[in-house]
Amino acid sequence: MLHSEPDLQQLARAIKQWGAELGFADVRIADVDLSHAEAGLQAWLDAGRHGEMDYMASHGMKRARPAELVPGTVRAICARMDYLPMSTRPDWRETEVARLSDPQAAVVSVYARGRDYHKVLRSRLQQLAERVTQAIGEYGYRVFTDSAPVMELPLAEKAGLGWRGKHTLMLNREAGSMYFLGEILVDLPLPVDEPASAHCGQCQACIDVCPTQAILGPGRLDARRCISYLTIELKSSIPEDLRPLIGNRVYGCDDCQTACPWNKFAQRASVPDFDERNGLGSASMVELFAWTEEEFNRRLEGSPIRRIGHERWLRNIAVGLGNAAGSVKGDAGIVAALRARADHPSEMVREHVAWALARHTSD
């Protein structure tokens, strides 16, 4: 399909307006040449820093070549959506840090306390893509939300949504990093936006705060040590030497984000989907550890947490309960909760429970 240049300029402006109406905080457009990112991706994979995330390696350089993934692609419409719950208080970062010091608290990443972002963004990106169809007729497109081998951060960076911080997450001067990204790959030669410049300067708060030292240097992450990887992506046992460093983080980790000065500008979500459910911002580990598999599946329906399954949920919380021994060793409630799971059918759960009990009952 042929489009005249004035039409494309007007269409690009309309796409951004439609995106705002759908709840996106910003929508920008990039070309899809990611050749500059290929060497870094290959080096990261060669070093094995992707851990058990085999899908990262299986697609090889296709991740950096959107036109190979979706033939005909010439542009990426990149969107971001803020996810801090609407009721988030101005001192939310201090509150999150304080919970890390509470030996009974179950700390769940802020992004995971509401509805699964995959569902929210995908639906709204699809609506945006269909709005374009209504305006110009049929065209080639495909919607992505962290759901296929697409290097969304380099694309978002090219589009001008922000810059890649030293923790490898996207940063924006007006919104910090508390947002999700999504893309629509299209065959329309839309006008592209200017990339954003970096503004981390000499700050390395994210590197210094990382509990497991997973950030090896500016922009260099070893996923195998990252608590988000260990509690979400890792399917097997958590390495014993890393368990004490996880503390009471039972799903994901926000430390590098709460430490980042730019997140004083983090924006509240414009949609209710990311509002907290099941009290996950204030729940105790003993409370969550008691959930049966049926209860886990029912309560977390529509939540990103449900993807890890009940077994890994128990594994993660067992580690947190074991780490509580550093402050409340031998706590009767914690010990009773662990003993109730000591004979769990899963060998992995039993192993982590035994480790945690040993920390509470050893001399």
From TrEMBL:
Q: Which residues bind [4Fe-4S] cluster 2?
A: C210, C226, C253, C256
Which residues bind cob(II)alamin per the record? R63, D146, L181, S228, C253, D254
Gene Ontology molecular functions: 4 iron, 4 sulfur cluster binding; cobalamin binding; epoxyqueuosine reductase activity; metal ion binding
| Organism superkingdom | Bacteria
What does this protein's record comment on cofactor binding?
Binds 2 [4Fe-4S] clusters per monomer.
The subcellular localization recorded is: Cytoplasm
Which GO BP terms sit in this record?
tRNA queuosine(34) biosynthetic process
Q: Which residues form the active site?
A: D146
Q: One GO CC term of this entry?
A: cytoplasm
Domain 4Fe-4S ferredoxin-type intervals = 188-220
Question: InterPro entries under this entry?
Answer: 4Fe4S_Fe-S-bd, 4Fe4S_Fe_S_CS, QueG, QueG_DUF1730
Q: What class of enzyme is it?
A: oxidoreductase
Q: What is its EC number?
A: 1.17.99.6
Q: Which residues bind [4Fe-4S] cluster 1?
A: C200, C203, C206, C260
**Necessary cofactors:** [4Fe-4S] cluster; cob(II)alamin
Q: Which NCBIfam families match?
A: tRNA epoxyqueuosine(34) reductase QueG
Q: What is its biological role?
A: Catalyzes the conversion of epoxyqueuosine (oQ) to queuosine (Q), which is a hypermodified base found in the wobble positions of tRNA(Asp), tRNA(Asn), tRNA(His) and tRNA(Tyr).
* Matching PANTHER family: EPOXYQUEUOSINE REDUCTASE (PTHR30002)
Q: What is annotated about its quaternary structure and interactions?
A: Monomer.
Protein family membership: Belongs to the QueG family.
**What is the name of the protein in this document?**
Epoxyqueuosine reductase
The species this protein belongs to is: Massilia cavernae
Q: What is the lineage of its organism?
A: Bacteria, Pseudomonadati, Pseudomonadota, Betaproteobacteria, Burkholderiales
